[in-house]
Amino acid sequence: MDGFCPVLTQKHEHDSKTDNRKAIVKSLNFDPNKLAYPKQVHSSKVISVNKPGIIEETDGVISINKEIVLSIQVADCVPLFLGDKVSGYFGLVHSGWRGTANNISRRAVKRMKEVGSNVNNIKGMIGPAINQCCFEVGPEVSDQFDNSFSIAGKGDRQMLDLKSVIKHQLIDSGVKSENIIIDDDCTSCREDLYYSYRRDGKKSGRMIAIAGWR
């Protein structure tokens, strides 16, 4: 997307024990004083943000202010970047299985349309996250999704493809298929590049996703 900069830090690029987003933002030549980010709670809530600061208990943020820099944390959950180069509106969504089951990506697209984006101009990038090869879930999770997004695992467990679910939700919201990019990297497989909660448990660090305009 021309001028739109979506970034997901890799594990060697920052200290996993501290939330040093401002330093990361500055290293990417953005203004750290313009940073806005949510305190994530695995919700399906999407908030419009037009000034810097911390947003309580939400997992999706959009902005009509091109000076704002948006950020989320992930460690297997999907970072979804949304941008409209015509209007300049953009968004960043933390979409774990709970948020995905509750259609957070659709809510984000809906919110962008409500503030004036033409859905034909919205582009989405589904960033590195846990892939179907490593995301084994029980029926309490898999039953919340159409079975076309799962393949059989061990016993009653299923291997869930969250990235495909989100792509389907975006298309169902009116985003053109050709405007959706999916990064194929699996955070659980690529121990050399990414933190993974599924792989490493509570000791896992977090990647920082950044979105802004240049």
CATH architecture: 4-Layer Sandwich
Q: Estimate nothing, just give the exact number of structural domains.
A: 1
Number of strands: 14
Number of helices: 6
Mean pLDDT: 94
Q: What is the CATH domain class?
A: Alpha Beta
Spatial order of the strands forming the largest sheet:
3-5-8-7-9-13
Shape: globular
Class by alpha and beta content: alpha/beta
Question: What is the third-level CATH name, the topology?
Answer: CNF1/YfiH-like putative cysteine hydrolases
What are the segments in which pLDDT stays under 50 over at least 5 consecutive residues?
Answer: none
What series of H and E elements makes up the topology? EHEEEEEEEHHEEHEEHEHE
User: What's the story with the biggest beta sheet?
Assistant: 6 strands, mixed
**Ends: how far apart?**
11 Å
Using only CA atoms, what is the Rg? 16 Å
- Helicity, in percent? 10-25%
CATH superfamily: CNF1/YfiH-like putative cysteine hydrolases
